[in-house]
Amino acid sequence: MKQSKQSKFLVVLLTIVMVVNLFPTLVLAEDIGDELVMVEEVITEDELKEALTDVNGERKIIVANDIALSSGVAITGMGSVTIQGKTGNEVIYASADANFASNAHGGKGPNMFLIVGDNDIVVTLENITIDGGKDQKVTTRLFQVGSGSATSYQLTLGEGSVLRNAHTNESGGGVFVRQNALLTIDGGCIQNCISDNYGGGVQVSGKEAALIMNSGSIMENSGRYAGGICYYGGVNSKVELYGGSITNNTVVSSNVVRPGGVFVN
């Protein structure tokens, strides 16, 4: 007996309902050109961490509300992942009692986010704010890019992305760019981050470590050596500034004279 179009439709509809009930976290697929991108909506710390573990292929994570982090997030896998706020007002922030363990996942110092592993990976932030909880006396860096044996770790700060309010005893209050790593700023902002060492906003140090700034801003950061950007070099490393603004960054050490904006060792 042939199944009618109406009954076939009901079967498909019931199947979709069953899948949604089994998987409360929304997972969809989105066509972008010839690529099929998995889209997942997250609302909790555990969901965010799970979505960023072992990334495979193209993936988009939609943050649907504010999320408090109690510990660091290691972004691993192979491919690319975009972390995007649903409305643009969402904040991922350090909880007051957060414990960002020093050197976790092979990182240098406490990190909220660590792009790590043995495979090449690209991470993009859009319309999302990452807040390090400096006002709550939390001590952590926001991002470390690179730690492992991969040949390329990349972080892009896209339009509407803000990294803010971090305080670390290590280098790079906002972002520490390490070996084989690239930070690209395309409209994003790094603001009000403090390092008790090198680079309040960004530290670039290591073989083939690079910063490319096309647009956006690095502002109101401070460090013992360079407030905005500290470029400490390395084989084939580079800092390229094509656009954007670097303003109101300061050096906090009283016994050295160094630029507040950009320091090149």
Structure description:
With 265 residues, this protein is mainly beta. The protein is 9% helix and 49% strand. The strands form 2 sheets. The chain has a 16-stranded mixed sheet that branches. β1 and β2 form a beta hairpin. It is globular, with a radius of gyration of 20 Å. The relative contact order is 0.09.
Give the SSE layout:
Blueprint: H1 5-22, E1 27-32, E2 35-42, H2 45-51, E3 55-63, E4 67-69, E5 73-75, E6 77-85, E7 91-94, E8 111-115, E9 121-126, E10 129-131, E11 141-145, E12 153-157, E13 162-168, E14 175-177, E15 181-198, E16 202-205, E17 210-219, E18 222-225, E19 229-233, E20 238-241, E21 245-247, E22 250-251, E23 262-264
Parallel strand pairs: 2-3, 3-6, 4-7, 5-8, 6-9, 7-10, 8-11, 9-12, 10-13, 11-14, 12-15, 13-15, 14-16, 15-17, 15-18, 16-19, 17-20, 17-21, 18-22, 19-23
Antiparallel strand pairs: 1-2
Question: What class do helices, strands and sheet pairing give?
Answer: mainly beta
Shape: globular
Radius of gyration: 20 Å
Mean pLDDT, as a whole number?
Answer: 87
Q: What is the CA–CA distance across the termini?
A: 79 Å
User: Can you count the beta strands?
Assistant: 23
User: Can you count the helices?
Assistant: 2
Order of helices and strands: HEEHEEEEEEEEEEEEEEEEEEEEE
Question: Strand-residue fraction?
Answer: over 45%
Low-confidence stretches: 8-24
Largest sheet: 16 strands, mixed
Range of helix content: under 10%
Q: Notable features of this structure?
A:
16-stranded mixed beta sheet, 23 strands, 265 residues, mainly beta
